[in-house]
Inverse folding.
């Protein structure tokens, strides 16, 4: 007789459900335990003090008065931290040398012209009596990304996207106000690629930091008919030696989609320039709940993602959003291996394995990214699908003067 292995589907589903419940319990324990006093990322060696990578906070968070320390010089064996990309250039177009010099001149003067207009507007608001005006340098980035997918029938599908993200600092407008304009969807489950966003509309929001770990933002999503949205984000951080644990709780409301919530727990470990990251996220939304009920699914609107990254980094961006860190988008020069899984509460929808490599094209402000992925999705009967992604990103960061 041949041995036969029997699989109990009910037991498997129970194990998966228990795993999701356990992840949620860990997240909520950390969230409501209030174990941290800020949200920061550390790049640390075994012998050196950590190098702080500032402002890992919500998508519309306020950097000022949130407990973040200024960036320190990188340790010899730690990644170089890039917090400023606009460098001094020749005074005039004629004095700039060669094509590369003229490109740098355009980059620097474009940022200068933009920042001057922002400061003129901000100076309309007078500071309180006895206080001086605050000068904050804005940051914005422009990226062009594309991907090619080889489908089951060997057809090639090409997709492209322009990503724009701006943090416009208005420190004298109510003293702690920020304007943010972005094409990033803050309701996207962490770990999803930017090219997978279904909503690429431009969003403009006014953000306010109320307490050290809590911020809110209210804005408009530009469509044929503009729609209102709002977010409230709570973040915390717990650190022990060379390990750091981050948690983020996001509550959001969309005029069309309704309410939703995303809980994220991320683990970050640095050993010299080697980095290991793991994150788990759980999302619930009214829209997903309605879809599940319509399709007679028992998931009740719950979605989850788990992402693992291991890589080597020589240059690291002073990133401001936890979602970018989870996806490895804060790597300026380095490579990484990435594994990810996505699903609903009772089942797995997709597995993904891939690699990425990022390197500077021009100084510290223009970067190129390329990365192959292999996907196995339930919607494709778990057939293997190859994807190649690439993109160019330009940073206009004036640094922080606080």
């Amino acid at each position: 007789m041949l041995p036969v292995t029997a699989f109990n589907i009910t037991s498997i589903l129970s194990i998966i459900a228990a795993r999701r419940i356990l992840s949620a319990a860990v997240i909520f324990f950390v969230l409501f335990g209030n174990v941290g006093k800020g949200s920061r990322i550390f790049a640390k060696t075994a012998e050196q003090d950590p190098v702080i990578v500032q402002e890992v906070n919500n998508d519309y968070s306020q950097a000022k008065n949130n407990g973040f320390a200024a960036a320190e010089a990188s340790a010899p064996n730690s990644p170089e931290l890039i917090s400023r990309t606009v460098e001094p250039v020749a005074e005039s177009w004629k004095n700039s040398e060669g094509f590369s010099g003229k490109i740098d001149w355009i980059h620097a003067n474009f940022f200068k012209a933009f920042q001057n207009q922002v400061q003129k507007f901000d100076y309309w608001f007078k500071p309180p009596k006895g206080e001086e005006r605050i000068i904050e340098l804005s940051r914005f980035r422009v990226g062009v990304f594309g991907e090619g997918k080889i489908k089951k029938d060997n057809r090639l599908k090409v997709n492209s996207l322009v990503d724009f993200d701006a943090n416009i600092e208005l420190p004298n407008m109510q003293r702690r106000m920020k304007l943010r304009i972005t094409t990033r969807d803050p309701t996207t489950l962490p770990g999803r690629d930017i090219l997978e966003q279904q909503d690429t509309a431009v969003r403009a929001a006014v953000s306010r930091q109320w307490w050290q770990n809590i911020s809110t933002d209210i804005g408009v999503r530009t469509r044929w008919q503009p729609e209102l949205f709002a977010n409230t984000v709570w973040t915390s951080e717990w650190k022990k030696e060379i390990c750091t644990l981050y948690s983020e709780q996001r509550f959001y409301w969309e005029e069309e989609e309704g309410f939703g919530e995303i809980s994220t727990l991320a683990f970050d470990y640095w050993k010299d320039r080697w980095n290991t990251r793991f994150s788990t996220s759980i999302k619930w939304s009214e829209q997903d709940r309605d879809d599940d009920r319509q399709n007679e699914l028992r998931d009740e609107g719950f979605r989850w993602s788990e992402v693992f990254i291991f890589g080597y980094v020589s240059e690291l961006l002073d990133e401001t959003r936890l979602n970018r860190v989870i996806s490895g988008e804060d790597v300026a020069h380095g490579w990484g291996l990435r594994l990810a899984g996505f699903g609903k509460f009772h089942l797995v929808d997709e597995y993904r394995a891939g690699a990425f490599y990022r390197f500077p094209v021009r100084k510290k402000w223009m970067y190129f990214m390329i990365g192959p992925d292999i996907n196995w999705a339930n919607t494709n009967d778990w057939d293997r699908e190859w994807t190649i992604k690439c993109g160019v990103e330009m940073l206009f960061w004036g640094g922080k003067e606080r």
Notes: The chain has one domain: 9-397. DSSP finds four helices and 17 strands in the chain. Residues 9-33 form the longest helix (25 residues).
